[in-house]
Design goal:
single chain; about 140 residues; mainly beta; 6-stranded antiparallel beta barrel; 6 strands
Length: about 140
């Protein structure tokens, strides 16, 4: 029985790609697809980083409640990680693996982004636009 559990643990640990240690990433560009006039819809926030001589693009999907003001998200008051990240040009500590990016905000909170290279949404950085994989 112990050997079966050991085998399962070894296989499971081999399937998960290890995240890099904390690196400094520069936020090159960001943009958003907002859900306006939403009653529990979802907005998508896209961030493009340069870290370890790579371009990383992450997406955060946040639930939205904003039926009175389309530019606001009333749920941010309840869940602070649904706030936007720092403005472009700033250096941010982050970790990443093959699927995700974990960004540490200035308040110490870690936000998980899903890597997504399918949406051509960036307007300020040609490096970010080059990283988009067209279908």
């Amino acid at each position: 029985m112990k050997s079966v559990l050991l085998f399962i643990a070894l296989v499971a640990s081999g399937l998960a790609a290890p995240a890099t240690s904390d690196v400094q990433g520069k936020l090159l560009d960001s943009n958003q697809l907002l859900c306006t006039n939403c009653f529990f819809g979802a907005s998508k926030y896209y961030y493009c980083f340069e870290a370890d001589n790579r371009i990383l693009i992450g997406r955060q999907t946040s639930p939205v409640l904003n039926w009175q003001d389309p530019a606001s998200n009333d749920l941010v008051k309840l869940h602070k990680s649904w706030k936007s990240l720092n403005p472009e040009g700033q250096t941010i500590p982050l970790r990443y693996d093959d699927r995700n990016i974990w960004v540490t905000r200035p308040d110490g909170k870690t936000v998980k982004l899903k890597q997504d290279y399918s949406t051509d949404i960036f307007v300020h950085s040609p490096e970010c636009r080059k990283a988009i994989r067209k279908k």
